[in-house]
Write a structure and sequence with these properties.
The chain is an alpha/beta fold. Helix content is 30%, strand content 22%. The chain is built from 10 helices and 15 strands. Helix 3 crosses helix 9.
Length: 336
């Protein structure tokens, strides 16, 4: 990402320092956050600073994006006690902890390139070996699926609850998959896109609804309506939180996992009158990340339906455009 555009260029190979691994990218998913970063990078940086983020990229310098990856270890930095060796396939939380105490977000750093490159540097202490036999493409989806796992954990939902997921993009689909893995039911999913509704059903939704045809809350009431409801807002556009609060039954918990890049407005009296719980989720813990990899490897999470395209480095700019059409793609993998 250079001057708010995606270009393909040659840069110097990174050199691993103490505690780091030099790796070769095998597969890297294109995330919706990357689409936001290209279009709304200034807002993203401003909000990161406001929120006190420990790392903020400089948009006046190059940024190699890509944080959903599987990679092969090529070399281990000096004086590094690593649990992996050259030739091992790994996944990792996309963060590098330097020997001097610095913290860098892989894919949103000017100094640590992400998976839209042939080479990356990763922290040896965060690397997780890919279990034998698991396809690298599937392993690359550990990161986005871990986002769904964390969101569901943050919601506090149990098998005694019903779930309503509004928005069936990659994040909403990851939430649905985790809800299904936990045996939550019913799971009602809402999206305007027929393709996304079909994927929601594939990933475990028990009822899918087009909001133009039926209100999501009405669909939940038709399917069940008795269990305590937990709503997941996975759209991330202004007005969605207020709409969810207005529609929610008394005592509902609303978990916001859709990233809205603009100021938004809610009416607190609605939440007070209904005694709603409103919570937000971001990222995942190391344990949730590792558990997600294990679930994919053991077949508890079938992520293969989410992969709808593959491109080489030259195809990344067009892939960003193609992902704007929800009928065409869900997850495109970059395979340098």
């Amino acid at each position: 990402m250079r001057n708010r555009e995606l270009i393909v260029d040659e840069v110097a190979d990174p050199v691993p320092a103490q505690g780091e691994l030099l790796v070769r990218t095998l597969a890297c998913g294109i995330c919706g956050s990357d689409l936001h970063a290209l279009r709304h990078g200034d807002q993203m940086v401003d909000m990161s600073r406001t929120a006190g983020a420990p790392f903020v990229m400089d948009l006046e310098r190059d940024v190699v994006m890509g944080h959903e990856f599987c990679a092969e270890v090529l070399d281990v930095g000096p004086d590094t006690a690593a649990m992996v060796k050259s030739g091992d396939r790994i996944v990792s939380i996309p963060v590098v902890l330097t020997a001097t105490g610095g913290l860098h977000s892989v894919g949103y750093s000017n100094d640590y390139p992400g998976g839209y490159a042939e080479r990356m540097l990763l922290s040896s202490m965060l690397a997780l070996p890919v279990p034998n036999g698991l396809d690298s493409e599937l392993a690359a989806l550990t990161e986005p699926m871990a986002v769904g796992r964390h969101a569901v954990a943050r919601s506090g939902i149990t098998p005694g609850h019903a779930a309503l997921v509004v928005g069936c993009g990659p994040v909403g689909l990851a939430v649905i998959a985790e809800l299904a893995r936990l045996g939550i039911g019913p799971i009602v999913a809402a999206d305007f896109s027929p393709a996304r509704r079909a994927l929601a059903e594939t990933m475990g939704a028990t009822e899918v609804v087009d909001p133009e045809v039926e209100a999501p809350i009405a669909a939940w009431q038709r399917v069940d309506g008795a269990k305590q409801l937990v709503m997941f807002e996975a759209v991330g556009v202004p007005g969605m939180i207020d709409q969810a609060m207005l529609a929610a039954p008394r005592g509902t918990k609303i978990l916001v996992v859709g990233v809205c890049m603009e100021p938004d407005t809610v009416r607190p009296m609605i939440g007070i009158g209904k005694e709603l719980d409103l919570a937000f989720a971001l990222g995942y813990s190391y344990e949730e990340f590792a558990g997600t990899l294990r679930s994919i490897a053991e077949g508890e999470l079938d992520v293969s339906p989410l992969i709808t395209g593959r491109v080489g480095l030259d195809g990344v700019p067009k892939a960003f455009v193609d992902l704007g059409n929800p009928e065409s793609h869900c997850k495109i993998l970059v395979e340098p």
